[in-house]
Amino acid sequence: MNFSSKLLEDAVNEFGKLPGIGQKTALRLVLHLLGKEQAEVAQFGNTLIKLKNEIKNCRVCHNISDYDICNICSAPKREKEVICVVEDARDVMAIENTNQYFGVYHVLGGLISPMDGIGPSDLTIEDLVERVKTSEVKEIILALSANMEGDTTLFYLHKKLKDFNIPITTIARGIAFGGELEYADEVTLGRSIATRVPYENTLIK
Amino acid sequence: MNFSSKLLEDAVNEFGKLPGIGQKTALRLVLHLLGKEQAEVAQFGNTLIKLKNEIKNCRVCHNISDYDICNICSAPKREKEVICVVEDARDVMAIENTNQYFGVYHVLGGLISPMDGIGPSDLTIEDLVERVKTSEVKEIILALSANMEGDTTLFYLHKKLKDFNIPITTIARGIAFGGELEYADEVTLGRSIATRVPYENTLIK
Question: Which range is the signal sequence, renumbered to this chain (chains A, B) (predicted)?
Answer without folding.
Answer: none
